[in-house]
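Format notes (please read before filing issues)

Several people have asked whether sequences and structure tokens are stored in separate files. They are not. Every record keeps both together, in the order shown below: the sequence lines, then the token lines. Line labels are part of the format and must not be stripped during preprocessing.
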Amino acid sequence: MAIAMEYVMNYERERGWIPTDVSQLRDGCGFDILSVEDREDDSNNVLVRRIEVKGRADFNQDICLTNNEWRRAQQLGDSYWLYVVWGCKTNAPQLITIQNPVVALAGNVKEVKQVTRYIIGGSTLAQYHSG
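Then the structure lines:
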């Protein structure tokens, strides 16, 4: 992950953006880098990218987004970017950038349901009552 983060930070700087690594804050923001363009647009709005970074050692590997990352992508829309760095362990990494991944990847995302707990009903428990 450190290789991917460094790669993306350098990529943003080379394009005239000012990236800040916010991943260490562990504040639940749902992205790793807050990048601000070093200029304002015609409406005097500061342009911001909220970037989730995923790095993979090899090429053509799957990535996973957490529920929080996906939810934040839904909320933040076009200001949310997914950057995937393939080939982090090679001499020639490849960067994939996807703006608003919820819209861009619609229909190509698989939701994975995970068991977080098991519920045992009271009527079932009552069968074991030894009184």
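For reference, the curators noted about this record: The longest strand covers residues 46-55. The mean pLDDT is 90.
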